[in-house]
Amino acid sequence: MARTQKRAKSPMSAQHKEALAVGREQGRAVRRYLEALEANRPKRGRKRTTDSVKRQLAAVEQRLDSADPLNRLHLVQERRNLKEELDRKDRSVDIAALEREFVKAAPSYGERKGISYAAWREAGVSAAVLRRAGIQRAQG
Predict the structure, then answer these.
(1) DSSP calls for 40-80
(2) Cβ–Cβ under 8 Å, residues 20 and 74
(3) Does the reported pTM lie above 0.90?
(4) Running DSSP on this structure, what letter comes out for residue 40?
(5) Which of 97, 63, 98, 103 has the alpha carbon at shortest distance from 79?
(6) Contacting residues for 72 by C-beta, under 8 A, at least 6 apart
(7) Residue 29: which of 133, 114, 140, 127 has the closest Cα?
(8) Shortest CA distance to 29 belongs to which of 95, 99, 92?
(9) Tens of pLDDT along 101-126?
């Protein structure tokens, strides 16, 4: 019977650990910026104000007491959606700070991951931000 030998794990070098940490931070910067773009993308129709959402929430609360069980279920969900919308409105996002971090991280992140200019644009990143990051269209 042949015994299998376990290979000794070689310790990770400090340089490798640093490269991993930099990659994780770049990924976080890119993710946060793209999420902020998605969350703040203009929606069709009239913009809802905090007051209008609060009025709608009050109307839902009022209708809950007299609603039959099925309508109550829908109203409970609507109330949850409205409260979540209010929470999002209360949380302000510093898009400029996220953009600065993105501009620093995106060039090496995109190069390492093979992300093209067109992919960045399709994901919602403006041409001006890509220009500031030094990401250019492919010369073909």
Answers:
(1) TPPPSSSPPPHHHHHHHHHHHHHHHTT--HHHHHHHHHHHH
(2) no
(3) no
(4) T
(5) 63
(6) 64
(7) 133
(8) 99
(9) 999 999 999 999 999 999 999 999 99
